[in-house]
Amino acid sequence: MSAPDSQPPRGALDDADIDRWATQATAAIAAAQSTAELKAVRLSHDGPKSPLALANRALGGLAPELRRAAGARVGAARSRVNIALTKRQDELQAVELAQRLSAERVDVTLPAELAPLGQPHPISALMERLGDVFVAMGWEIAEGPELEAAWMNFDALNMGPHHPARATSDTLFVDPVEHNLVMRTHTSPVQIRSLLSRPLPIYIVCPGQVYRADEFDATHVPVFHQIEGLVVDRGITMGHLKGALDHLAQAMFGAVSTRIRPSYFPFTEPSAEIDLECFVCHGASVLDPDAPCRTCASEGWIEWGGCGVVNPRVLAACGVDAEVYSGFAFGMGVERTLMFRNAATDMRDMVEGDIRFSRALKGEAR
Amino acid sequence: MRAPIGWLREWVDLDPSVDSRQIYQALVRAGLEVETVERVGPEVTGPVVVGRVLSVLEEPQKNGKTIRWCRVDCGPDANAQASQPAPAGQPGSRGIVCGAPNVAEGQLVVVALPGATLPGGFAIAARKTYGHISDGMICAEDELGLGPDHAGIMVLPESDDQGQPLRPGQPALPVIASVDEVLDIAVTPDLGYCLSIRGIARELAQAFEAPWRDPAARPTPEPRQAGCPVQLDTAGCPIFVAVTVEGVDPHRPSPRWLANRLRMSGLRSLGLAVDVTNYVMLEIGQPIHGYDGDLLDGGIRVRQAVAGEVLVTLDGVSRQLDPEDIVITDGSGVIGLAGVMGGQSTELGPDTSRIVIEAANFDVLAIARTSKRHKLSSEAARRFERGVDPAAAYSAAHRVADLLVELGGARVSPDETVAGRPPDRPERTMPGDLPTRVLGHPVPASQVETILRASGVTVRPRGDDLVLTPPTWRPDLVDRYDYVEEVGRKIGFDVIPPVVPVAPPGRGRTPAQRLRQVLGQVLPAAGFSEVISFPFCAPADLDRLGLAADDPRRAAVRLANPLADTSPDLRTSLLPGLFAAVARNTSRGLDDLALYEQGLVFFGPAGSAPSPSVATRPSDQELAAIDRALPRQPRHLACVVTGQWRPAGWSGPACPASWVHAVAFAEAAARAVGSELSRRAVDRAPWHPGRGAELRLGDRVIGLAGEIHPSVAEAFGLPQPTAAAELDLDALIESAPGPGQLPILATFPVAKEDVALIVAADTPQAEVAQTLRQGAGQLLESLALFDVYSGEQIGPGLKSLAFALRFRAPDRTLTEAEAAQARDRAVALAVERHGAVPRIG
Questions:
Q1: Among B41, B48, B211, B311, which has the minimal tally of Cβ within 10 Å of its Cβ?
Q2: pLDDT digits over B272-311, tens only?
Q3: Percentage helix, strand, coil, to 5, in chain B?
Q4: Cβ under 8 Å to B: A residues 206-225
């Protein structure tokens, strides 16, 4: 950096001096390599003690006839210097910002996690999804106790005292058995409680945990989850049952064919099973011994759940007039649905608490 | 029920073009769960022919065996292709080495020729053995996959089942084995009549609109006692038919077709008389019992058993009888467990020539209970449990008799007994349009009539109604809706058009359901993963938790028939299940865990629930009594954390899981529902005595959180430290505030004041903070603890708590003096209450 070469005279201002000081200033400005250098240049060439500032101050001492021209000259020189300063300041700031940003570069691929992320259990997540389908149709979600009176779980559902499902080989009983308390074997007692307590019409689903005295292996769990549906209204038919089930199947699995075929349950009449077209063979394996399908046992369909028209005996036990109202009900296993939808293979994984199973499904897959 | 299609075709006249796939589909559509369609028949390929043994030469061998060098006429073509032709001048034949001792000159046998493959991939070739070239193989039954018999070669009769003489060289398989397809049907409890060829044939006839014959078409005559006397002394036996056959040749074997059909249907061949009774049971669905007529002691009496009576059943088991069992007796006492299994004393034997054939009907429930009581399931019991056609008994008895005449050379005694009669079936009136209204598909009344008549129902139209009487074989047709189902099965549910029902506007999830849904998002976002455990526990689990004898969590409800005897109780805490999950994870090398679970826990005592009538709605009192019997079963929420909460990484050191994370879990849950928990140090199992906190909503304790006691962790095999929290989720959700009110936002500037207080080390910060809040008054906007310090500068037994206080007024800018005054009031109260010393600088 170069300083101005001389002080302004106390007497008259020399035009050449003014030009030289301005030229020296702009040269120094151009030579500054950082905003810090430029700050020093500004002080010496444009500060209060710089020749141009002193010259400006000296204008007051000049004779009026000289003052106008000298003033114009000094003003023009200072303006040149100021413009150069501003321009150089902008240039140097841009360079310095670029250097700083370059120096601040990081590895954006480094692990970045605010906190460990957990997941709901796949069964819970799926139950919410199943519930959503029905809530969106205006149905409500009903719940009830898991330890239930036998009357709610069996008698009211047209499963009398001698029904085979009431054997201790099938149902878990609270001790002593004669006290008529069981671990509910389905969520149907919630349907009974709803029929007893809710105003008609009823449009509900009952998701929840249920219990059977069953094996515990890759395809059976004695404690599992169901979602059941119940509609009781005027003029309800089997066609409405098919409509609701088709809607649910499509919401869960996309475009999939369903079939209902006659079956037997004490609490529905007519009764049916709902089947889904086999995801794997799409029916091609039926009676083709050369291409057996393990998923559907070459039946072309896989059983999803049971359903039917509510048996008027059930309505009678709940005080609903079967001459005026009719209804349908259905139920399916959530674990089974998870097997179809998310390719779960071993049911034991669902209840053993391995954190890898809980964390496997993310986002929309839930 | 395994039903060979060939057997079905014998009774229903199906078009030959109808294949097994169509039959399968038609039956499934009609509600019969056809599980498999299996092709049966020997797995034999290549030339297997009838041969006649022309000569047998026994040749003892050095190894002690005797082989038989046979010349066998295998038909002109096979004889001509023999590797060693017959000696000159002798008839055409092939030389075959045979080991079986029963081979004899003149027999007709089955010969597998070179090029044939027998079951198991056994390829037949001409091969050199025992000094001869054996030019084929004379087959035994097992070698052809026809049965277990390896006692010797199969010897064929001179003619086939149709009476055509057998000729050497003709293919043997059609003669000896039936090739058929067998339907395996899982019969639902309501369709017991389909446990018979008769029932399935009827369904097929209806499905294909094909003509059929009823194998049980003989009408039941009026009661008569001309044959073996039968006395019915129980309401559980409405009809008992006894037909006697005499002169049964006990040495006649079952013909091959009969044995084959039984085998295809899953039954073993046990001799002609037994095979015939089984055959008729499969065909008509009527279980038959045969008594050795010479071993019967006088007449038969059917009655309830008397306590203390004992019967040795055919399976050799001695059974204590129950008064609810129905038994068959004669002069000697009990000779059979009615409808379930006969007794040994009158069993058909190898010399039986006089057989009393029983075809009877028994009460559905009685047989089901007897079968269950004695843990004795038989083909007969399976049928009676679902209901057998009482009007088929007479036909079935005579079908057995006819077959024994035809196959066993017997004579039917014209003196027969028919005790009782088939009960009348109840009439039901159904509106003709009910099927249309229930199914949601138009079925005109005329079609309803046609369908029900084809199902055997007697239909009488009366106005718009149909008066219906079910057939004797359909105990399931009782209610009007039962008939609707019958119509539905026959039109097929596939024709019903789906219609999505339109519900009235719903209210969405309940507040509690919504909050649980929120928790399902908030808790995972807070770092916890959900698990599901079995809700059972063992008394030993409660011991390992270190619970005192009077701890409320000891009040477990016990199951009468637990899945595992080691875990007979319902859980009262989620922690043992979560601990088991931790142990399972760590055993699989997964050490950094933050798990949670929500579910019901069960607190005894449980009561006894009444079972009111189901004819009408129970009274409110009865319903209340049911609910009173149920034990309390609140929903709990719990977590367990162990290992590293956050592993060491590039940005910092590891953060080990601690009591803080368990408490933070509970706090996160409370905040998510909009409630605020307070905490108080407490010494409660299974927590660390100095690191456990009660979780409180106001004055109510709803849970506990902190580090697990090291002894408990050790007892459950958990890493140390492990921390956990458990709280009553129902109580937390009940505490959730209502919709709430939004505040008016003050826009005046905030005044900040910091306060540091020296207090005794065991003073909970929560109490000091509460005091400061109270002392600071209404201008205090927020208060936050930002430092806890203890050390030399403070002195032993003391700690310094530093709080940041923010003050704001809703209506003006606070002066410095106002803020300082509020701060000083807060400090003064802390000094007064906690003996706090303000720390300067």
A1: B211
A2: 999 999 999 999 999 999 999 999 999 999 999 999 999 9
A3: 30, 30, 45
A4: 209, 213, 216, 222-223
